[in-house]
Amino acid sequence: MKSLLFLTVNGRQREDAVAENMLLIDYLREQLGFTGTKQGCDGGECGACTVLVDDKPRLACCTLAHSVAGCRVDTIEGSATNGGLSRLQRAFHEHLGTQCGFCTPGMIMAAEGLLRANPRPDQAEIRAALGGNICRCTGYVKIIESVEAAVGMPEAA
Asked: Per the domain annotation, does 157 fall within a domain?
């Protein structure tokens, strides 16, 4: 059975008929076409599906779409600023924070959630914020360095 879901995704108000048992990741990827949110483990263990719900990181693979009714959901696609990369996206690019790139959207969204709550985190806070995100390619050093670099960067105009 479907019912109407009202929410804001990447700054745009939405009103969509959504199955009551549809997961947020399926709604974002299949219904809205936001494929930057990755489906990794299907069990809330890898963090590849991290999005922000009212500025807080949330695993889209473990969240029913209807549970975020009335909320603001931000995905990696909404991170761009005036068509340019966000400061986190720029930092990951400039400081080699990606390898294969599969985990990158989830890492960036988890880091974005941290920076919205705490614009000047220390390394321990960055590590804690990214603790639920798994990268199979790196030793995490470049990822953490990328987030640290983003802290000092201005947002694109």
From this structure: no
Range of lowest pLDDT (2-6, 51-55, 153-157): 153-157
Q: Where are the beta strands (DSSP E) in the chain?
A: 2-9, 12-19, 50-53, 56-59, 72-74
d(CA 46, CA 94): 24
Return the half-sphere exposure (C-beta side, CA atoms, 13 A cut-off) of residue 145: 11
Backbone angles phi, psi at 59, to 5 degrees: -85, 115
C-alpha span between 61 and 80 (Å, rounded):
23
**pLDDT reading at 155 higher than 90:** no
Model pTM? 0.95
Percentage of the chain modeled with pLDDT above 70: 99
**Same structural domain, 53 and 93:** no
In a domain, 36, yes or no: yes
Enclosing domain of residue 40: 2-77
Per the structure, how many domains does the chain have?
A: 2
Give the list of residues 6+ apart from residue 123 with CB closer than 8 angstroms, or none: 144, 148
Q: Are residues 40 and 107 in the same domain?
A: no
- The CATH number that applies at residue 16 is 3.10.20.30
Does residue 152 register a pLDDT over 90?
no
